Automatic annotation (TrEMBL), chain B:
<dbReference type="InterPro" id="IPR009075">
    <property type="entry name" value="AcylCo_DH/oxidase_C"/>
</dbReference>
<dbReference type="InterPro" id="IPR037069">
    <property type="entry name" value="AcylCoA_DH/ox_N_sf"/>
</dbReference>
<dbReference type="InterPro" id="IPR046373">
    <property type="entry name" value="Acyl-CoA_Oxase/DH_mid-dom_sf"/>
</dbReference>
<dbReference type="GO" id="GO:0050660">
    <property type="term" value="F:flavin adenine dinucleotide binding"/>
</dbReference>
<protein>
    <submittedName>
        <fullName>Pimeloyl-CoA dehydrogenase, small subunit</fullName>
    </submittedName>
</protein>
<dbReference type="InterPro" id="IPR009100">
    <property type="entry name" value="AcylCoA_DH/oxidase_NM_dom_sf"/>
</dbReference>
<feature type="domain" description="Acyl-CoA dehydrogenase/oxidase N-terminal">
    <location>
        <begin position="6"/>
        <end position="117"/>
    </location>
</feature>
<feature type="domain" description="Acyl-CoA oxidase/dehydrogenase middle">
    <location>
        <begin position="122"/>
        <end position="209"/>
    </location>
</feature>
<dbReference type="Pfam" id="PF00441">
    <property type="entry name" value="Acyl-CoA_dh_1"/>
</dbReference>
<dbReference type="InterPro" id="IPR036250">
    <property type="entry name" value="AcylCo_DH-like_C"/>
</dbReference>
<feature type="domain" description="Acyl-CoA dehydrogenase/oxidase C-terminal">
    <location>
        <begin position="239"/>
        <end position="373"/>
    </location>
</feature>
<comment type="similarity">
    <text>Belongs to the acyl-CoA dehydrogenase family.</text>
</comment>
<keyword id="KW-0274">FAD</keyword>
<dbReference type="InterPro" id="IPR006091">
    <property type="entry name" value="Acyl-CoA_Oxase/DH_mid-dom"/>
</dbReference>
<keyword id="KW-0285">Flavoprotein</keyword>
<dbReference type="GO" id="GO:0003995">
    <property type="term" value="F:acyl-CoA dehydrogenase activity"/>
</dbReference>
<dbReference type="Pfam" id="PF02770">
    <property type="entry name" value="Acyl-CoA_dh_M"/>
</dbReference>
């Protein structure tokens, strides 16, 4: 047993850190540090910087632009991004549809789509959830009927993150309504410019616009945009969701936010002293730090076992990462609420270009929205209750 | 970065587990505890034969040169079986102190007896007022010719009733809680002026109150500079307790899940109920978090940097104690009424976990230490 990184891994970390330091625009870093949303242009800008370096899709196979890094190197890379903080690669293309395309897609699809994901020429979004299909995803109803060399799609998707920026959407659609619910589903790639698609924003409780409803009204999709075989979409979706859970612990992001909390808690006063010195606050902060250190170790153990046993099989221990990781992310936003105190109250619009003077400290306006917004992390990607079902079934055999 | 066992470690774990499987189930444990010592001399002999009593000592001292990982493996297995023999007192504490503080001559005189299973050690350190403050030592040592003379009262000396040699901390100089001026002294348990009162602890183990009245002793190492060694060995001890607790939690969780699969109510096994499934899953999450930190503590417990060492070890103790409390309490709850009975194993795991929590610093104590050290250095 050996805890330390090897000399090569440390050199790699230094290389990544130096690259980020030299190339990450300060404006992007500052927005992320305060928990603000980035614009589409900012995300594209950073992705292009990584792409130029050859680091925009590191975990993909080398032939599609990947880096041939070990799991530990990939871990170091995403930790360094989170620590900066720099935007992590947009997951919809990179972690979700990309691996589905290079694993199950045909040559034409690989050639057409993968390079445009790597440099973010195409912005993808995920069309899985529906109003009646959340945790019970397989009950989805959006229909795709084959007519000649097209599918005609009718239905509605929801919770579609950043669909307002998207060029493409990958969808689970029902192609065989007679089959058992998991068996009649196909995986379809749909151009967002196709007539019949309507995107309607959903405003979340933080006031932000991340998510959307997407309506399909007689949308004609070329049959060549079917991935793999018809009615096998559920298998591809399960593959995709197991990839999604890797990195879901978000250890690096929580670390960066705790460092920020310590800075801010040393600035805010409470009585004669500082918030950081208040024993009750300090104890809560330390408890979260210890949980986070334990989670980091748990994540490294999962990584090490994947490095040893090979990837592919979803590791049910990743449910532990999801549950603990989301709880800690939420606890961190609560701590920041405790630091900001009464200046949580004023509500400032979050749009770019707002230039009224801040009420209270200039970082305060993003704190409450971030707290509100972070309630989502124990809901998405399989709610924490679903994760407990998975542990009970897959690990405990109940 | 590597969490795998090497070949020697795998063999060590296999041999410990085999012994415990053959001779340390819950019924056998009751028999081991029923003897006059409160533990089994035969099992102790088997530990000696397996080399477990030689584990931490250097090869020159006749040992195996085991480190944190080896101690973790043994203690985790002991936790699963709720071993009551004085391994922690003799090997982890006493052995750790002897290995680091004693001269070559002293080691050559004492350690062979320990390794062969004839000599048991105990660490007489805590005092009535000291709680978890390691530097709060008020027993005194004064020069007496070639040796030293000890006076004071020591409390909660783990397995102090069965030890032949006691390692006693005492103050030679400085104020009551000063870091400097504390020494370690070796005393035979039957030395004139030393009296002991042994008693049972809540978890089925033993401890003793020790009174020292003009007891002649020899110093182990620098008689005014023992605190760094005491802190080092205390961190190793906490790491060992963390590993033991993980073993106990793991077994308590297994027993609980087995129970959920067999206990029938309302015509189904109660593990079919989601409220109980989720509690079982939450216990699993708590167990994995504790296991991660016990590994961190094991690997950091010999780190040359005392600040980083203590930070990791204290962080681990907080996590392990919190997980242990949750898992222990939940294991009783999910067993229902039978979990409350002496007859069932699960309650004994709960009790041991609860006592580990109060040994060498509890949650509040270690939380304070981590806070004072500036957090976990994330």
């Amino acid at each position: 047993m050996e805890l330390a990184f090897t000399k090569e891994e440390l050199a790699f970390r230094d290389e990544v850190r130096a690259f980020i330091d030299a190339n990450l625009p300060a404006r992007i870093r500052d927005k992320l540090r305060d928990g603000r949303h980035l614009s589409k242009e900012e995300i594209v800008e950073w992705t292009r910087i990584l792409h130029k370096k050859g680091w925009s899709v590191p975990k993909w196979p080398v032939e599609y632009g990947g880096c041939d890094w070990t799991p530990i190197q990939q871990y170091i890379f995403s930790e360094e991004l989170a620590a900066a903080p720099a935007p992590e690669p947009l997951p919809f293309g990179y972690s979700m549809v990309g691996p589905v395309i290079y694993t199950f897609g045909n040559e034409a699809q690989k050639k057409r789509f993968l390079p445009r994901i790597a440099d973010l020429s195409d912005w993808w979004c995920q069309g899985f959830s529906e109003p009646g299909a959340g945790s019970d995803l397989a009950s989805l109803k959006t229909r795709a009927v084959r007519e000649g060399d097209h599918y005609v799609v009718n239905g509605q998707k929801t919770w579609t993150t950043l669909a307002q920026h998207a060029d493409w959407i990958f969808c689970l659609v029902r192609t065989d309504p007679e089959a058992k619910k998991q068996l009649g589903i196909s995986f379809l790639l749909i151009d967002m410019k196709t007539p019949g698609i309507t995107v309607r924003p959903i405003q979340t409780i933080d006031g932000g616009h991340e998510i959307n409803e997407v309506f399909f009204d007689d949308v004609r999709v070329p049959a060549e945009n079917l991935v793999g075989e018809e009615n096998r979409g559920w298998d591809y979706a399960k593959f995709l969701l197991s990839n999604e859970r890797v990195g879901i612990a978000r250890v690096g992001a929580s670390k960066a936010r705790i460092r920020r909390i310590k800075e801010l808690a040393a600035l805010e006063r409470i009585g004669e002293g500082r918030v950081i010195d208040d024993p009750r606050f300090r104890a809560k902060l330390t408890e979260v730090e210890i949980e986070l250190k334990a989670l980091e170790m748990t994540q490294l153990r999962v990584l090490a076992s994947e490095a040893r046993n090979g990837k592919g099989k979803p590791n049910p221990a990743s449910s532990v990462l999801k549950i603990k990781g989301s709880e800690i992310q939420q606890a961190v936003t609560e701590l920041l609420m405790d630091v900001v105190g009464p200046y949580a109250l004023p509500r400032a619009p979050q749009e770019d270009g707002w230039n009224e003077p801040p009420v209270g400290p200039d970082w305060a306006d993003a704190v409450a929205p971030s707290y509100f917004n972070t309630r989502k992390v124990s809901i998405y990607g399989g709610s924490n209750e679903i994760q407990k079902n998975i542990i009970a079934k897959a690990i405990l055999g109940l | 970065m590597d969490f795998d066992l090497n070949e020697e470690q795998r063999l060590l774990k296999e041999s410990v587990d085999r012994l415990l499987l053959d001779r340390y189930d819950f019924e056998a444990r009751k028999r081991h505890m029923s003897g006059p010592e409160g533990w089994s001399p035969e099992i102790w002999e088997s530990f000696a034969e397996l080399g477990l009593l030689a584990l931490p000592f250097s090869e020159e001292d006749g040992g195996f040169g085991g480190g944190g990982a080896e101690a973790m493996l043994v203690m985790e297995s002991f936790g699963r079986a709720l071993v009551v023999e004085p391994y922690f007192a003799t090997v982890i504490l006493g052995g750790g102190l002897m290995a680091r503080a004693a001269s070559a001559e002293q080691r050559a005189r004492v350690l062979p007896g320990v390794i062969e299973g004839r000599t048991r050690l105990a660490f007489a350190h805590s005092e009535r007022q000291s709680r978890y403050d390691l530097a709060d030592v008020r027993a005194t040592a004064v020069r007496d010719g070639e040796g030293w003379k000890l006076n004071g009262d020591k409390t909660l000396v783990l397995h102090g009733d069965c030890a032949q040699q006691l390692i006693v901390s005492a103050r030679v100089a400085g104020g009551p809680r000063d870091e400097g001026g504390v020494g370690l002294f070796l005393v035979a348990a039957d030395a004139p002026g030393l009296s002991r009162r042994g008693y049972a602890t809540q978890d089925g183990m033993r401890a003793a109150e020790v009174a020292l009245r003009d007891v002649r002793a020899e110093a182990l190492g620098d008689p005014e500079g023992a605190m760094p060694i005491i802190r080092q060995v205390a961190d190793e001890a906490v790491a060992a307790l963390c590993a033991e607790a993980v073993g106990a939690m793991e077994r308590a969780h297994e027993l609980t899940i087995e129970y959920l699969k067999t206990r029938q109510q309302f015509g189904v096994h109660i593990g079919a109920f989601q409220a109980l499934q989720h509690r079982g899953a939450e216990m699993f999450v708590a167990l994995e978090q504790a296991r991660s930190m016990a590994m961190l503590a094991a690997m950091m417990s010999r780190d040359p940097d005392p600040v980083e060492r203590s930070r990791a070890v204290s962080g681990a103790k907080v996590q392990v104690d919190r997980s242990g409390r949750f898992i222990g309490q939940s294991a009783i709850q999910l067993h229902g009424g039978v979990g409350m009975t002496m007859e069932y194993a699960v309650g004994h795991y709960f009790k041991r976990l609860s006592m580990i929590e109060k040994t060498f610093g509890d949650i509040d104590h270690h939380l304070r230490l981590v806070s004072e050290a500036g957090g976990m250095a994330l």
